[in-house]
Design brief:
The chain is an alpha/beta fold and 712 residues long. It is built from 24 helices and 28 strands. The C terminus is likely disordered. It binds alpha-methylisocitric acid and iron/sulfur cluster.
Length: 712
Amino acid sequence: MTFDIDMIRKVYNRYPERVAAAREAVGKPLTLAEKILYTHLWEGNATEAFGRGASYVDFAPDRVAMQDATAQMALLQFMQAGKSKVAVPSTAHADHLIQARIGADKDLQDGINKNNEVFNFLSSVCNKYGIGFWKPGAGIIHQVVLENYAFPGGMMIGTDSHTVNAGGLGMVAIGVGGADAVDVMAGMAWELKFPKLIGVKLTGRLNGWTSAKDVILKVAGILTVKGGTGAIVEYFGEGAESLSATGKGTICNMGAEIGATTSTFGYDDSMRRYLAATGRQDVVDAADAVAEHLTGDAEVYANPEQYFDQVIEINLDELTPHLNGPFTPDLATPVAEMKEKAAANDWPTDIEWALIGSCTNSSYEDLTRAASIVADAVEKGIAPKAILGINPGSEQVRYTAERDGLMDTFNKLEGTRIFTNACGPCIGQWAREGAEKQEKNSIVHSFNRNFAKRADGNPNTHAFVTSPEMVAAIAISGKLDFNPITDTLINTNGEEVKLAEPTGHELPSAGFAVEDNGYQAPAADGSGINVAVAPDSQRLQLLAPFAPWDGANIEGAKLLIKAFGKCTTDHISMAGPWLRYRGHLDNISNNCLIGAVNAYTEATNAVTNQLDGSVDEVPNVARAYKAAGVPSIVVGDHNYGEGSSREHAAMEPRHLGVRAVIVKSFARIHETNLKKQGMLGLTFDNEADYDLIQVDDTLTSPILHRLPQASS
Ligand code: MIC
Ligand code: SF4
């Protein structure tokens, strides 16, 4: 069954007319990204061409996706909107709150026991307001969306930065904060600065050890963590068509790591195959009727430099496997150069843990390719040196993989742990033994992010991002700098052996199967459903609106922290153990900026309280200012708020009395989140002014007088 097929057909029915209007307005051949954007204008047919990177435009997305860690805050806000039902098809997915410890069944049950209150809340809110709910164990939001909801040419927003994964099926899917999702679910327009366009031409074909992941690891190395900011990345060319739909999803997924608004691919046979295999032949039929509109115009792909703001070309024939990291996803190292680079940088090369999973790389194809390496190692009698941990992307993938013997293969490798179909270690939901000792060590994983402390809370864990097949090879060799293309291993008989190249199946030859996919359909009429939030709950807290601006200037604001260097949303509002407070604004505010580095001392979570000169934790100092009625401000470096869509990173400072965040530059989602939550998000006119901010500064700003609202 295809969810919301009528909505999808409606979108396709209006495509020809809307694309024609866009073509006329823009006056030249169109990229795919432009077609999708212009067919989703809130106002209907395009009447003007928008300035890329300049115009603010209202859009009408087709659907909304939320995951449990962000849905709580989003839905608490939606409950204030006074609506009886969501205006567009929406889903929530329970995937972030389950910890990986022993193995799937036990961990899932523990996760349900520990998070019962939150899951019940989500289940009842979804039921009441017409939102589909995917229960714990059903899978990771973006894999479930790809398998069930994504459709070529559609537009979706989601309260998670990796919503962009759906670009693998040719969508424009964009990560947003909860407040943006609430606007759309309440039937309002969604505003976005019209993106710039980056074209990536892929030639050749993947071969040997190289996989789709290496395309984005390479692109991240070229563009860096902020190179995609404000842009949609559109992939095209024969190389693009040769990739599987889930491989395309991997590439789009990690586009979040270069700050891209989203990434996408034109509709092609790989998408047809994937849609059909996941039971959506009706989407293929509907899409085929407008297929010419679901990809960029031929002129665009023939002369990309004339139509994109930037063009990158990658030859898949020459691309080699990469490892990106540590601590940042854009530090790209070809596997062949790792020996030298690890030694030069003193990166630990012994590997204890190697993890496959996350929304980025947990598809059926990913598991088959990794399993082929494991099967080869077992056959050749090689004992693994590290533990391999696996989180399948969805129950459908897990069930099918189990049926096809892949889980048996993995389990033949000593020590392998199959965890729940959930985010797990990718979001710090990992009870890694010994992590508290904070020893310097390296891990490899197929996730997308590797910021400090993210997976196991240990600031000294050097995490490297790579493809699932490389993760498997490194698990077996136990060495970060193992190059399977050239290096050999010694098996249990003392013989020198070499791992064979990975092989895999794009799709299961016997089709996908699942017994219980974990979906809960909402009630047709939810008006009688009561959503209970206990007043003394430590996990959930009903929201009260923030006080509106009093119209006055900000006077006497104290500097709360001047953050130095990388300050991602993980630094501003850490995940892992703090995920339990995602529905309780006051409690989660106790993690506000605790990971940010104080520019004056280079310490974390220690700032000067200007009221009494003491040094205290950031949330305590913020609360002290708030209690004294003193406003505060935060100063930051480049790409401030990089990473997650979590609006807690904006709501917490707002809740604690911070009035403005002044930085050298922002990551897109975080900047919007700050503004949506009623904060001033400002950038220095002159970057060097960052250096002028002093530890004991009090800021009185003439800024508000200059804002248009101030005079109205
Ligand atoms: C992440 O990968 O950091 C998360 C957890 O999925 C976040 C959302 C969140 O913080 O809940 C994201 O990427 O937006
Ligand atoms: Fe979950 Fe990790 Fe994907 Fe975020 S990046 S949605 S935490 S699997």
